[in-house]
Each structure stands twice: as C-alpha cells, then as structure tokens.
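Two proteins, back to back. First:
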Amino acid sequence: MAVVAAATWVWLGMVLAISFLEAPLKFRAPGITTVLGLGIGRLVFRALNIAELVLLAIVGIGLLVAPGGAGAVWLAAGAAGVLAVQLLAVRPALSRRTAAVLRGEDAPGSRTHLVYVALELLKVGLLVALGVIALS
C-alpha cells in the first residue's frame, strides 16, 4: 500500500498546486492577458490530466498487487469517476469556450468552471481519504 499512498499524495499535491494555486494566481501576474492566461491554462491542465491518469493507473495497479480493502477501492473508484466526468464532460465544454475566446470571439459567461471546481473539491476529499487509508 506504500505505492498507493505515495501516488495518492502526489496526485493530491498536484491537484492542489495547479487547480487551487497556479490557476487563479496566473491571471494576477503582471502582463498576463486573459488570452495568454487561457493558453497557458490549456497546456497546464492537459499536462495535469495526463499526470492524473498515470497516477490513477499506479493507484489501480497498487490496489491489485497489495489490496487495501473495500474502502480504498471505493475511494479510488470515486476519484476515477470524478476524473472521468471532468475529462469527458466538463473539460470539453471548457475547451470549447476557451477556444472561442482564443479566436477572439465574445464567449458568454459560463458556470462550467464552478462545476469543475466543485468536482476538484470532491476529488480532493476522496484523495485525502484514500491517502489516509493507504497509510493505515
């Protein structure tokens, strides 16, 4: 379970650092326009999502090799489910809006970011719980 714990805490750290620190702060940096911030955000979140998939695979393999009980499996499945919703439903909607802004179009406001943040908070809770169980 040490590998599961390590992958979970790394995953949690990446989500916290990027979603709750880098993403909002980049728009406060001097000289960063909305277009530039969105372009950077696309690259950063694409990299984060790839890293999350790799870490999820490590967690999954770790749970197969050294089962941690039903609680760990359910928490990992919950985090996987949240990530799947983000990647398959929310990110495409955000990407369409970002692409429109990057093309110079006047894209209407969207609550999709709030949905993404809510899912990130849920994922953070699941990862904290999984990390604690994996260390037990």
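And the second protein:
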Amino acid sequence: MISEPPLPDDLRALFAGGVDVGRTLSVPLPPGRSVAAADDAGGRPGFWLSDGPAPAGLWARLRAEHDRSGLWPLLLDALDDEDADYRPWGNGEVTPGRMSSPAGHDPARLLERWWGEHVEDALDDTATPAERDAVTAPYGSRWPGLAPGRPVSADAGRIADGLAEEILAGHPSVRLGLVAVGRAADAVTVVGWQGPTNYTDDTAELSAVLRSWEERFGARVVAVGFATLLLSVAAPPTTRDEALAVAAEHFALCPDNIWQDDEPHTLARYAERLVGDHSWTFWWD
C-alpha cells in the first residue's frame, strides 16, 4: 500500500502545534510561500500563497483533498495586479491576531443588528419615510428574519469547482492561496482578511454568517479580493419571495451591494438577480 506524502514544512507551519499530524497532500503545488501578518512577524503564517497565477484545474483538485489535507483553497485577487506587493496578500496586509472565533457569534443576531443600522442610513436625511421604506420594500424597516434554507441536492463542492474555473477563465492573473481551516466559511477569518473593515473590524462575524449560508444554501468561499468576496451557492433561491428574503441578508451583511448598484437602489431589484444564481458576489466600499 502506497502512503500519501505528508505536508511539506511550509504548509505544516500553517497549523497549530500537532494539528497537522496525519495530514497529507498528493497534489503538486506551484512555487509559493507561507505568509505571516505584516504586524506579527514572529507568529504562525496565516496562509500559503503561490508566486504566480493559479493553474487551471488545480483549485478543484485541492478542494477535493480538503478533508485529508485540512487546507482550503482560495483564489486571491489583489487591489492592483501591477502592484509588486500583490496587496493585501503578498505583503501580509492582514490581521489574523485581532479576529475572534466565528463560533462566538450568532448570525441571526448579527444580521438583525446590521439590518437596523443600515436601514437608518438607507437614504440621506432629506428622504421621506416612504422613500426610505422603498429601498428595503417589502420589509420597510422591519427585519424579516433569516431566510429559510433550501435542500442542497447539488454537490456543493462541484458547484464551487465550476465557479473557480469560471473565475480563472475570466481573470487568469489571480493567485492560489491555501488556508489551514476545517470549513470554508472560516478561511477569511483565519487569514485575517480586512475587506469589510468599514462595517466590521472582526471578520469572525462575517464567517459566522458564512457558516449559516454553508448550512442553508450550500455556499462555499471560492475567491477573495482586497475588498471583494465571491461564494459558490449550491442551493440558491428559486422564487422571487425566496430571493427577497436572501437579499435582505445580503443587505444586512454588505449594504454596498445595494447602495452601489445601478439605479434604482432597491432590495427588490437586487433580489431579481439572485433567483437561480449559483454565485454570490460582495463588495465593501
């Protein structure tokens, strides 16, 4: 019986002491290096980063080995592809040490709190109550609660694989990242990503919501940019009403998805594109 090769030292360094024992990875990796946070040079590296663009097909092979390797793959995009530092990834412009644990946050309470905060800011002070309510119609200022989950009949992993290949085909300069994490939702916290910093400086709160979406919609984290996040979704909403409920959660998590949208800036318009869509994109200004 041929045993699988153990993790190389630069990948073993991503795990806390002893957690890497028995981990294996049979997929050859391109040249790369482990990256530590710039403000914590003596700490454990937060992730591994390829030196060049991610090869086609590699993301899916690594995703398939996640259970054995303990490493979740990410497609990592930079603020500026021409930047030699490949911010925030290449220069370690991340802060994993200041993040809490996703398990310590209730996603329902987080979304309800954020919803209330964003509804207050939905329009400028000259807007009438009717204009404010129109932004988040049919809910107005009332938080509708969590959207019901849908049966995940599709293979969530293969849906994620397909999205990864679409990203690489359209943006072949993205690099490959590997994160030592038990589930995809926690990857952004473990690497110390600061993309939503204008709305929360603790990315563990974001991961708590992503965990809930993993369970309710088969969502997986596939790609992360400087302030962008792209998820695959195995069980997206299939009706307008389902999509509206999901759109409310998106607004609570990332109001810029609606505020920065083409006119009109309404939840109803945004919800239209969620029906049957197997990818969710977020951007924080």
